[in-house]
Design goal:
The structure is a single chain. By secondary structure, this protein is of the alpha+beta class. It has helices spanning about 5-15, 20-30, 35-70, 85, 115-125, 140-145, 150-155, 180-185, and strands at about 90-95, 130-135, 165-170, 170-175. It folds into two domains: about 5-70, AhpD-like, CATH 1.20.1290; about 85-185, Glutaredoxin. The protein has eight helices and four strands. A four-stranded mixed β-sheet has the order 2-1-3-4. The radius of gyration is 24 Å and the shape is globular. The relative contact order is 0.10.
Length: about 220
């Protein structure tokens, strides 16, 4: 498979994955390789065809999947909350992202260091007791933006350009940018203290695996 064919395949895959930056990148790469406009348009059409087929199959599958799985594996009885759980307060962090193929910052032709750092901070927050993180993507979860009346109102009159909207306990805290780790932890009143894990004891014979060899 030559480079031109690879780019045409990537164009179709980008359409099927709904990855806008990926699509732009691979179209430009195909043009630089001398791929014709007609070939590019055909690749886009193929991507939409695959996408349509996958959506149709998923629609049929999802109609019965929940019922079948739930009947095969009934949920255990819900345990009553303890007095501590009932009294414990919870901080809810909600992030409303602009439309993008993914929120990790590593999808597309280049890495977005700001998004990558923010995703790492959110992953750390999910391990904190009393903190719940909810994240919504405008391109993939538009219903969440409509359901929140304040977000829906802010999106009017070109408000989409001010995304992301970040709420703490349903109060708008930040918009238009992603916060640094220390800034977010301070707002959530979480101490930025690293958790250190003890190193395993080193074997007497000095080998890393304890068998005289090296892993």
């Amino acid at each position: 498979m030559n480079a031109s064919v690879k780019e045409l395949v990537a164009i179709g895959a980008s359409v099927g994955a709904h990855c806008q930056p990926c699509l732009e990148h691979h179209i430009q790469a195909a043009i630089e390789l001398g791929v014709t406009e007609e070939e590019i348009r055909q690749a886009v059409t193929v991507g939409h065809t695959v996408e349509k087929g996958a959506m149709s199959a998923m629609k049929k599958f999802s109609a019965t999947a929940v019922e079948e799985i739930m009947s095969a594996r009934p949920l255990p009885p819900k345990q009553p909350k303890t007095a501590f759980e009932e009294d414990a307060s919870e901080t809810i962090l909600k992030i409303y992202d602009p439309a993008m193929c993914c929120s990790s910052g590593v999808c597309g032709p280049s890495v977005d260091p700001v998004l990558t750092q923010f995703a790492g901070t959110l992953k750390m927050l999910t391990t904190q007791p009393g903190v719940r993180v909810e994240r919504y993507n405008l391109g993939q979860q538009p219903q969440a933006f409509v359901a929140n009346t304040e977000v829906k109102s802010m999106l009017g009159n070109g408000g989409e350009k001010r995304l992301p909207f970040i709420f703490i306990n349903d109060q708008l805290w930040l918009q238009g940018r992603y916060p640094a780790k220390d800034e977010l932890l301070e707002a959530l009143k979480i101490k930025n203290t690293p958790v250190l894990s003890p190193f395993p004891a080193t074997p007497d014979n000095g080998s890393c695996c304890g068998d005289g060899g090296c892993c």
